[in-house]
Amino acid sequence: MLEEQIQRHRSRNAPHPARKGEQVAAAAKTLFLEHGFMETSMDAIARRAAVSKATLYAYFPTKEALFASLIEAQCDAVDEGFVMPDLALGLRNALRAFAMRYVAVFMDGSAAAFFRVIAAENGRFPQLCALFVKRGPQKAVARCAELLTTARENGLLDFRDADLAATQFLSLVRGDLPLHSALGVRAQFSDAVERTIDAGIDVFLRAYGGSNRVI
Fold first, then answer.
1. Best CA proximity match to 98, nearest among 174, 161, 23
2. What span, in angstroms and rounded, lies between the C-alpha atoms of 12 and 14?
3. Domain spanning 82-208: CATH superfamily
4. Helix 19-35 and helix 42-49: axis angle, to 10°?
5. Are 158 and 84 in contact (CB under 8 A)?
6. Which among 101, 204, 191 has a CA at the least distance from the CA of 151?
7. Angstrom distances, CA of residue 123 to CA of 71, 126, 134, 146
8. How confident is the model over 30-49, as pLDDT tens digits?
9. Which one, of 179, 178, 168, lies nearest residue 203 by Cα?
10. Residue 24 and residue 10: Cα distance in Å, rounded?
11. What integer pLDDT is reported at residue 4 of this predicted model?
């Protein structure tokens, strides 16, 4: 339902620059981060965006649809510019490049804060959390599985279930960064983070290294 509302919104505004829609989205994100989803009203969003309520509802029929569009935009921003690492540079280098890009998400203070707003609404609006999981974590697993599958096809890895192997890989390289993110503890790239990544890759390769492995 939420995704259908977002699609209708996009179709209605596609031919023209949605300048006011962008104003609304920026205002809503600021207020959601400051006050949370439940404590932010559509009236407050309209005031912050300097638009009428009629204009606001023309772009977003409900607050849930507005929040869902922000979730999609946040996930798209994280994914923007992604380039699959080149296995020709070596399996370990490719895995490390993927891991570094992946864990960088947990270092982004704005992304972490937005995640906490989403997580806080799981009890009341589970569909919003489900949308985030689909567009964020599940997409990361799919991309990782694609890389691992290519490595398997080249005899560099040996596993049965690509999605399971990808999930395990991501768990190994991120360590406790998701916990820090959920608690609002700002993490930065450090020797400890890189050691976690390298150790995770070591464990993964010991478990799934293929017969033609070149690391």
1. 174
2. 6
3. Tetracycline Repressor, domain 2 (1.10.357.10)
4. 120
5. no
6. 204
7. 17, 6, 17, 33
8. 999 999 999 999 999 999 99
9. 168
10. 14
11. 55
Each residue's pLDDT expressed in tens, for the chain with a length of 215 residues: 555 555 555 544 444 446 888 999 999 999 999 999 999 999 999 999 999 999 999 999 999 999 999 999 999 988 887 889 999 999 999 999 999 999 988 888 788 888 889 999 888 999 999 999 999 999 999 999 999 999 999 999 999 999 999 999 999 999 888 777 777 676 666 778 899 999 999 999 999 996 655 44
Residue appearing with tokens 């977002």: 6
- Paired strand residues for 23: none
* Domain 82-208 in the same topology as domain 2-76: no
> pLDDT at position 77, please?
86
Q: What residues contact 198, with CB distance under 8 A and at least 6 apart?
A: 96
- Other beta carbons within 10 Å of 214: 11
For residues 146 and 62, is the Cβ–Cβ distance under 8 A?
Answer: no
Give the DSSP per-residue string, 93-120: HHHHHHHHHHHHHHH-HHHHHHHHHHHH
| Class of 2-76 in CATH | mainly alpha
So where are the chain's domains? 2-76, 82-208
Sign (positive or negative) of CA dihedral 70, 71, 77, 83? negative
For 3, the enclosing helix (H) or strand (E) is: helix 2-13
C-alpha Rg value of the chain to the nearest Å: 20
